[in-house]
Amino acid sequence: PNRSESQALPHTNHPHPKVDNFIRPSHKLAVAINPSRCRNKTFRTKQKLAKAQRQNRPIPQWIRLRTGNTIRYNAKRRHWRKSTLKV
Fold first, then answer.
1. Quick one: DSSP state of residue 84?
2. Whole-angstrom Cα distance, residue 36 to residue 38?
3. Which of 58, 59, 35, 57 is nearest to 47 (CA)?
4. pLDDT (tens digit per residue) in 60-76
5. CA atoms within 13 A of residue 44's CA, in its CB half-sphere
């Protein structure tokens, strides 16, 4: 059946015009699913985050004295924004 101009579907350059109605996945979706940023965390995830928080500290000064200043800093320090945890 032929349609008149007023009933015709709007033409788009997209090969599948109905695809625009769906939400496209983006990188922001991956951030929302990250368990370390969820409000409701499992106990296991919370334990891992707590351990990572305890490990992320400078070395005590008495260690520098004991090792003769061969260990000067914690090489495994982590910045919360620069690197992610594999939790």
1. -
2. 6
3. 35
4. 999 999 999 999 999 99
5. 3
**Cα 33 from chain centre:** 8
Compute the CA torsion angle 66, 71, 72, 73 (nearest 10 deg).
Answer: -120
Residues written for the chain = 87
Residue 78 has pLDDT above 90, yes or no: yes
Mean pLDDT for 9-38 is: 62
User: What is the helix, strand, coil percentage profile of the chain, to 5?
Assistant: 40, 0, 60
Dist CA 22 CA 31 (whole Å): 20
The domain spans of the chain are: 42-77
Query: What's the rounded Cα separation, in Å, for the pair 28 and 40?
Result: 19
Residue pair 36/49 in contact by the 8 Å Cβ criterion: yes
Q: What is the pTM of this model?
A: 0.58
